[in-house]
Amino acid sequence: MSASFDEFLSHFRIAKRQGNKAICHCPTHDDRHGSLHFTLDGDKILGYCFAGCKIEDVLAAVNLNLSDLFPNDARSPEAIYQYRTKEGGLAYEKVKYRVANGDKTFRQRRLNDEGNIIYDLKDIQRIPYNYPGVLRAIKNGEPIIWPEGEKDAETARILGYAYTTMGGASDWKDEWKGFFRNGRIILISDKDKAGINLIQNISKTLVEVCKCVKVVILPKGKDLTEWVTLGNGRTELDRLIAEAPELVKTTKFDWHDYAIEHDDLLSKNLQPLDYIVDGLIATPGTVILAAPKKRGKSWMGLQLSQSIAAGAPFLGMRTKQGPVIHMALEDGERRLRQRLEMQNTTRGLPITYLTKFQPLNSKAGFQELTELIRDKYPALVVIDTLAAAKNRFLDENEAGATGDLFNRLHDLAISENTVILVIAHHGKASTGDAGFDIRGSSAISGATDVNIGLYKNTDGTYDLKAEGRDIGEVDLRISFDAELTWCWQCQGDAKDVRRAEAENRITEAIDLLGGNVEASAIANELDLNRVTVQTHLKRMRNEGLVTFQVKGKKIFYGLPLTKPSKPTTPNTLQNLRVDDVGDVNSNAVLPDCPACGCNEWEYLPDLKSRHCLQCGYVQKSKDGELC
Fold it and tell me: Which ranges constitute the DSSP H helices of 396-518?
């Protein structure tokens, strides 16, 4: 253990020590339990106080300085800026150095999971400086001073303001705006060109999510710190803030905002796709859930809202928990509550319900929806139904007006980082195409990211079919429990369920016909295509669900005495290990079938032969070995 670390810790009252880590009582606040943490890695020390005390103040209280954290470093750090999580823990820190020519340099460091100091932020989520203070200020409606750089942010702290900063002149990212939603931001620009460009980029993004954004240009000094050293203070800054105009979001389209060069697009660091329902609903975006009348789509919408609010699985799929806005526009509060109680809901779910709303195709209605989303910051908005959410002036069959509404909903979902799901109806004809079957103009499905349809089968079960830009084809067999839970339940992949149902019918037909029957007889009994039956029988043979005998070029099927457990892989020659077969040389290459020329064989151990899966040709073993 480093003697210098021991000497360093001797300045503090140690609560717990384990190797190169120590927990101490912080000297700058009444610390009874020990909230000051130090970690030694090599010859560098990283320290932080969970109570939020500045590391400079902690060191100064025991007559130490920042250089004591770097005992063998020829460079002495000028400042350490600690970035804290919303809970107050240390996320990472930025160490500021001043080189010989006066220029400043920075190094970022953090603790990894093993407690070692790492000098990079690879794969680390960036957060605002003074993040806990930002959240408090947003909650209390206080203005937040945002200069360029941590030094000026600390000057704002000394003046008594809530403060933050995030990103330099070259690394601001639009997705960071979510940290400041509903905030009141005062941007203070440096006088250099890079600082002015940064403030322009940030303000253009923040105005989309914040309640108020202002830009203050200081009359003197290159930055806030220099302006204060010239004799200015809080009174003067309050006056400049009051005089600054409030920025408003422009509605004028500027193609420069959306143009990107080919190589820039390939180099851009894009966020991975996120889902609120795994494999079904990506966020942000818009979704249509449609079905004919009285098919349970409103029950499904209510079930989805509760699943997202609780972070519980939906139809067996994982969800991402978050607040929900549910607009039950065809229900009153009494009926809505009754449905929730029938679904055995629980208290404490972050869901806001509305049973009345202005028409979304009106200017006032859409503005109200926008303000509602910005106030609640939901992960999901459910609008039940489209017919109840519009007025008589919008015809669902009119492509222009309907497309405009859904394009605006899509833009709103993207800008506010949420999912807007609209419950709609199917038209009179049903094709099984989730997008095509939506009642009204095709512009509706064209403007949404995911189209979901509910389809009733003849046996009373349902299939949920979905298509979308960012999902594969979804086809689930579901059923509605109208006795106990009043919720939809997933029985599995619809194709697998249909296959199992077909296999059960084939099994019943073989039993009814007395066994030892050909595929054509089974097909006639079930009124199915012979090729379809043969396809199922091929799979059932591989899984041991039927027995078979080869007589010449014909195959006769029966039922096993006991139902076997399904193997994980079909028991075909291609999937068997060579030493499982025993008769085949390890270097043997399967020959083509002399009858049809294919290379698909099935090994028949009882007959010491193999037969062609395509034409049924049987190849006998020769001297105990298959050629």
Answer: 399-415, 443-446, 494-512
pLDDT digits (tens, 9 = 90+) for 323-336: 999 999 999 999 99
Closest CA to 486 of 354, 364, 343, 278: 343
Give the span between the Cα atoms of 405 and 413, in whole angstroms: 12
* CB neighbourhood size of 260 (10 A): 9
Distance of CA 442 to the CA centre of its chain: 28
Distance (Å, rounded) from C-alpha 14 to C-alpha 37?
Answer: 10
For 283, half-sphere exposure in the C-beta direction (CA atoms, 13 angstrom radius) is 20
Task: CATH number for 274-480: choose from 1.50.40.10, 3.40.720.10, 2.30.30.140, 3.40.50.300.
Answer: 3.40.50.300
Q: Which CATH class is domain 131-243?
A: alpha beta
Q: Given this model, what pLDDT does residue 102 score?
A: 72
pLDDT over 90 percentage in the chain: 48
Residue 3's Cβ-count burial label (10 Å; 0-12, 13-18, 19+) is exposed
**Phi then psi for 210, rounded to 5 degrees?**
-95, 155
Question: What are the tokens at 210?
Answer: 């914040």
Q: Any idea where the domains of the chain sit in the sequence?
A: 3-118, 131-243, 274-480, 493-559, 572-627
Which distant-in-sequence residues (6+ apart) come within 8 Å of 194 by Cβ?
169, 170
Which residue type does 439 have?
A: R
pLDDT in tens, 171-184: 778 788 889 988 99
The CATH architecture that domain 493-559 belongs to is Orthogonal Bundle (1.10)
Please, what is the Cα angle at 542 between 540 and 547, to 5 degrees?
65
| Residue 252's pLDDT band (cuts 50, 70, 90) | low
pTM (global) more than 0.90:
no
CATH number of 572-627: 2.20.25.10
Region of residue 499 (left: phi > 0; alpha: psi -120 to 50; beta: else): alpha
Amino acid at 560: P
Residue with tokens 């494999």: 279
Strand partners, 476: 464, 493
3 state SS of 503: helix
Q: Fold match between 274-480 and 572-627? A: no
What is the residue-averaged pLDDT of the chain? 85
